[in-house]
Amino acid sequence: MDIDKPILVLGIESTCDETAAAVVERAPDGSGSILSNIVRSQTHEHAPFGGVVPEIAARAHVDVLDHLIDAAMKEADIGYAQLSAVAAAAGPGLIGGVIVGLTTAKAIAMVNDTPLIAVNHLEAHALTPRLTCALAFPYCLFLASGGHTQIVAVAGVGQYVRLGTTVDDAMGEAFDKVAKMLSLPYPGGPEVERSARSGDPTRFAFPRPMLGRDDANFSLSGLKTAVRSEISGLTPLKAEDVAERFGPPRALVAAGGVAANQAIGGALCDVAAKAQTTLVIPPPVLCTDNGAMIAWAGAERLALGMSDAMDAPPRARWLLDASATAPAGFANSRAGF
Question: pTM of the full predicted structure?
């Protein structure tokens, strides 16, 4: 790969309940720009069930992905022959959706004799801040989404060390389940936050599990159970009741859909201030699942000469840190991790 020329990558995202396609350009100096970024949410399809239904998600990806890719290429005003690579999220995620996106990317790459990049969805989140600002390695990542919650040291492209993770529910999953208990609409995160803004933060004393431990793992299941216990005592429920391993990190980064939560952002801002470092949170449109983050991860990998064979497998589970292991008994149903 000629690193002295701009890299143009088409990115495809279909791991959960957003279908997305985007075109991103990586300049020789390492800076990035988004030429197009189109996302089609499936919230309407899954809302009646209070969560993502894998079969419905996969069919929805099949129905719209080709049209989204066509729209993204037209908005970017480039032809397929100009692409440096085609990148697709190859996991972790709901396997039906992952297969749809990866198979489509393989077809485009084969027809146009273009390199294929099979992107780890978590790596795409991890590298997104380098698309939006000139952020150098290393940095500390707090990744919080519907299916993933972990703290990761990001030392370079493909170089990740998981420092801590949830031992049960992912943060976004916990928000969705609490919203369902409170009869709030799906998706739960924005609805719980909206209700909490007008609530009394001192009314309930919820537990803060796993404090004082030597590791950086955390648990959300006990907190979710405590919320359920409080709700059961409020019957009927009224409206007012709904409420340094690689050297010093250059920044604390928050990514994933939950990073858009203002209360969490405020808490992380305090953490960054105490650590005397900078808090970096990409724009909300790049925190939730999107094609630009997949394209950018593909561009970052291609710039280092990394690409994948056409037999690259779709993966329901794919650890970002290859040396880490999933916590015992942890199986996230929302995104297959």
Answer: 0.83
